[in-house]
Amino acid sequence: MGRVLTELKTLGDLKEAGYQPLSVKDELRKNLIAKLRRGEEIFPGIIGYERTVIPQIQHAILGRHDMILLGLRGQAKTRLIRMLPALLDEYIPIIRGSEVNDNPFAPISKYGREIVADMGDDTPIEWLHRSQRYAEKLATPDTTIADLIGDIDPIKAANRRLTYADEEVIHFGLIPRTNRGIFAINELPDLQPRIQVGLLNILEEQDIQIRGFNIRFPLDILLVFTANPEDYTNRGNIITPLKDRIDSQIITHYPKTIEIGIAITQQEAWQKRDGQVRVHLPYFFREIIEQIAFEARQSEYVDQRSGVSVRMTRAALECLISAAERRALLNGEAETTVRISDLLFVEPAITGKIELVYEGEQEGVQNVARLLIGRAVKAIFPRYFPDPANRKEGRAVYQPILDWFARGGRVELTPELPFDEYVRRLDAVEGLCGLVQRYTRPATPAETASMMEFVLEALHQHSLVGKELIDQETRYSDIMGAMLSSLGRDDDEEDEDDELLRGYR
Questions:
Q1: Distance CA 350, CA 241 (A)
Q2: What separation in angstroms does the CA of 61 have from each of 29, 42, 247, 252, 355?
Q3: Those residues with Cβ within 8 angstroms of residue 76's Cβ, 6 or more apart along the chain or in another chain
Q4: DSSP structure class, residue 177
Q5: Which of 71, 171, 233, 280 is deepest in the core (most CB within 10 A)?
Q6: What share of the chain is helix, strand, coil (3-state, %, to 5)?
């Protein structure tokens, strides 16, 4: 064309340059095709959807579909829809001063039609960046038709001395103001049914009607929605006629493997701190954190209809690193390695992000959190060591350790223990260090110590070693001794310990 598009100032300049406007859906389709041909990544940072969700979204765009992303919380639905504007043209021309981003070639508002009729090719234009062509509304019960579509503005009518029959007294809502762009509604079922009805015309006829005005505004817009499954809560449903008009329903999901979950958490969690303390995180801790989420998603104590967000694993990993960081600060250490006892401080990241069924409420959310952590440790342990559940081949490996505890051995660990004291107490367990060195290759002495505690916790989870947790002090001992010692306590103490132990079985 010879001139940079954004230098064009009038409708006549656009015609002279040969500019051809496209509808927003055609524009998205054109740019997606170009990116696919070039092999570009369409949704950077979205992990685990490469063969499922992302192809379906691309199919919807290629088919010029409005779409809804349906899935449980924490499945990147909002992040996905916020990436759609990247598929729009960088700039498009609109009539200068238009409230509804009027296309200079086909204006829809009275203002746009009149200025083109009066000025013709001299109609002034301005360029709208794609970042300004996306709007989003969280559906809430108090959302109104006026918010989304528009209403009569009596103040505008009074100031301009207009009658209510004049089109210019209309105050446009969010959707008309996003004309020629993408409009998203999050949590669609929360929208009252009568408000959902107001969206029917937009989806089918691509137009809006306001307060009985005998006029139509043919909008150029892509509508995108997100929702949790309708049986998630009793807050509301998507009305059937509206669901019927949404062209593509795309089902999202949680990570299907631990490795995908680790990649997501690695990307999202704040791990590179300010350098005050260097925290080393052995890889098996990443596996345990992800396994906690997997255990929660199949636990009989957790309401599976509400889901378990990937935000839980992100927060859990950050809490785990913070626990190690705090210990190093208290002990004046410049670096530290995460320990199994640090998992105790992951509980706050779990308790606030799971919904419990009746049985879970009876157990208590803290006990359920500890149960999930324990199950995760138990599930990951056989990846590194022989499975203690295998009586023929696995159990014999741990016999020297079990014999040490049977002779009255005891290990007491607190989260703030300095490294030297932490290692000294673990080294006292006969056969423990040798077992770790036999089956694993720890990179540092600190990682070896963490692995040693890993073994003790896993043996407890298999009911081979006793454990008591009192005021954040962990005490490992002979399983029979721990059971017998509880018999001599008063009822209140016994009930309290039973609750704690039940959380680790």
A1: 39
A2: 6, 12, 10, 17, 35
A3: 46, 49, 252, 310
A4: H
A5: 71
A6: 50, 15, 35
Tokens of 247: 């062209």
CB hemisphere CA count around 371 (13 angstroms): 20
Residue-by-residue pLDDT tens, the chain, 505 positions: 445 888 999 999 999 999 999 999 999 999 999 999 999 999 999 999 999 999 999 999 999 999 999 999 999 999 999 999 999 999 999 999 999 999 999 999 989 999 999 999 999 999 999 999 999 999 988 899 889 988 877 777 777 777 666 777 788 899 999 999 999 999 999 999 989 998 988 888 777 777 666 567 889 999 999 998 865 555 678 899 999 999 999 999 999 999 999 999 999 999 988 888 999 999 999 999 999 999 999 999 999 988 899 999 999 999 999 999 999 999 999 999 999 999 999 999 999 999 999 999 999 999 999 999 999 999 999 999 999 998 887 889 999 999 999 999 999 999 999 999 999 999 999 999 999 999 999 999 999 999 999 999 999 999 999 999 988 899 999 988 656 555 554 444 444 444 444 444 4
Q: Work out whether strand 248-251 and strand 278-280 pair parallel, antiparallel, or are unpaired.
A: unpaired
Q: Name residue, tokens 């070639």.
A: 105
Separation of CA 446 from chain center:
33
Contact in structure between 265 and 291 (CB atoms under 8 Å): no
Q: How far is CA 246 from CA 63, 68, 70, 228, 381, in A?
A: 12, 7, 12, 15, 46
Residue type, 254: Y
Phi-psi region of 151 (alpha: psi -120 to 50; beta: other; left: phi over 0): beta
| CA–CA distance, 286 with 36 (Å, rounded to integer) | 34
Would strands 181-186 and 221-227 be described as parallel, antiparallel, or unpaired?
A: parallel
Residue 267 structure tokens: 């990307």
Which of 307, 388, 399 lies closest to 353, judged by CA? 307
Q: Burial level of 103, CB count in 10 A (0-12/13-18/19+)?
A: buried
3 state SS of 146: helix
Q: 401, 466 in Cβ contact below 8 A? A: no
Q: How many residues does the chain have?
A: 505
DSSP-assigned letters across all residues of 411-436:
EEE-TT--HHHHHHHHHTSTTHHHHH
- As a whole number of angstroms, the distance between CA 36 and CA 39 comes to 5
d(CA 175, CA 397): 67
In sequence order, the 6+-apart residues with CB closer than 8 A to the CB of 133 are 24, 85, 88, 92, 101, 178, 180, 181, 182
